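Internal ticket - ligand job 399, 2-acetamido-2-deoxy-beta-D-glucopyranose:
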Amino acid sequence: MPSHSCYARSILAGAISLCILVIIFMRFNETTLPALPLARTPSSSSTDLLHDVLNQTLGFQKIFVINLPSRTDHRDAMSLAAAVTGLEIEYVDGVTEVEDKALPPGGAEVHLNKGGLGNWRAHLNIARMIVEQNITSALVLEDDADWDLRIKSQMQDFARAARLLVQPKPGTSHQYLDPTWPQPSAGQTPQNFVVGEEVTAEPDTSAYGDIDRWDLFWLGHCGTRFPRSSDINAPLGRAVIKDDETVPEKQHVKMQFGNDELIQEYPAHTRVVSRARMNTCTLGYGISLPGARRLLYELGVRKMTGTTDMMFRSLCDGVDERKIRTCLTVQPQLFQHHRPLGAKSSFSDISDHGDDYNDQAFSRNIRWSTRLNLAKLVDGETDYIDLFKDGEGSTELGF
Ligand SMILES: *[C@@H]1O[C@H](CO)[C@@H](O)[C@H](O)[C@H]1NC(C)=O
Ligand SMILES: *[C@@H]1O[C@H](CO)[C@@H](O)[C@H](O)[C@H]1NC(C)=O
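stdout (structure tokens):
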């Protein structure tokens, strides 16, 4: 029938022109999308493992993101944020049901609520997967995490800092820098090692230091403090990243559950890496294969002693009858909770954030927040929103 074939032809023509339009649009976008900014000149030598930190998994073997399948809002935003900052992520389902029978010793006495139990299980499922699949190292994120657009060069600075604090392999000619290692004597004070001024041995197995030399990098948290000699068991050394333009000026930096030593003792725009102490929230961390085995043993097999972050903390601090592990952290943190517009009750499936409405989206301490800049990033615009501008007063933000 003529009318039919005519109809078919116009559909075909329509489809072809749509295809052409899509191709033109993609081409256009490919050529106009600006390269993402880096805070500093990246390491250029491709033989140096530091170069790996600029790859799609930030120099780890994998990036895992925990997401409850019902939180499609979190997954939508996370996938977009990862895509526009050049990160390759793998989702691991959050957990809603945990059987009492399946809890390790101590589990029944801890009385975690359903959200808390699910959170514990989700983090342990990832540790187990790392162990089962023999994954050298991974970055683990909760699905409301946000980061600066310049995350790749920030992580390169973190790697340089970590190398100064992670003990070099025995037999290398480099001395261990920190005189307070493995533990400080009474009255010893912390020494600062400036990143870029000190040299350490080149690691073989990970850009961040050999994986048998570190357990966990607590990169996303809601507060920490520096170790003290009175803690007895942790080295005090600090690796200092100076003139870091991605760190907001002091009036904007919020230490949440941590203390304000960073703000008191260091000039503005300084980021400091040290051993983790009293960290809260397990929103983002790097973990080595040996670290994952220890986590799985301590939190899954040996004993449940509290909430997930309390148990991570006890491993890093070496308390609650747990051996101290090599955990580093960073102030201000590199991953932070994003608080979108809307009801605060939607912030978390674990804890209660009240009934208020949040009318300013933000991520504490993150200057060029990926989440806040999604609208710009999908359009290839580069006049990024900086919620924490130099010289401006601090904004009153919700928690
Ligand atoms: C990034 O580098 C790490 C370390 O070399 C490697 O294991 C990982 O596979 C790399 N990621 C990608 C996406 O190539
Ligand atoms: C795990 O990987 C390491 C190298 O990273 C390798 O030496 C070891 O044999 C692997 N183990 C298993 C059980 O595959």
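Auto-summary: The first helix runs from residue 2 to 32. DSSP finds nine helices and 13 strands in the chain.
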